[in-house]
Amino acid sequence: MSRTTPACPCGLPATYEDCCGRYHSGASAAPSAEALMRSRYAAFVRRDAPYLLRTWHPDTRPPGIDFADAPRWTGLEIVEAVEGSAFHQRGTVTFRARYRGGELHERSRFSRVGGAWVYVDGDFIE
Ligand SMILES: [Zn+2]
């Protein structure tokens, strides 16, 4: 990673293009629930509404995403990923997403639609 290329917002030690950028552009699909979770966090940071909507389960997908009151995200930590691999149809990912002035602690559920991982819903954790 060169000094002039910013790291991916999801926190992995890779450039954006080599990491979540591949999924955002549609060049490839996130291979696991955790990879999808990371790419969706990066999409929130970059305010990529089309990617967030197309990786949202059709049953729970909102009509649109308004970033007007969105927090300023500052970091992501994956706490635990259960199932969600190539061998599964479902998975959960527990994470902490920090933003200026606070932190979101959530357990998110993912499943596959047409083979691709999508976000279903999530529970806040105290
Ligand atoms: Zn990434």
TrEMBL record:
Domain of life: Bacteria
Domain YchJ-like middle NTF2-like: 32-122
Family per similarity comment: Belongs to the UPF0225 family.
Protein name: UPF0225 protein OKJ99_20450
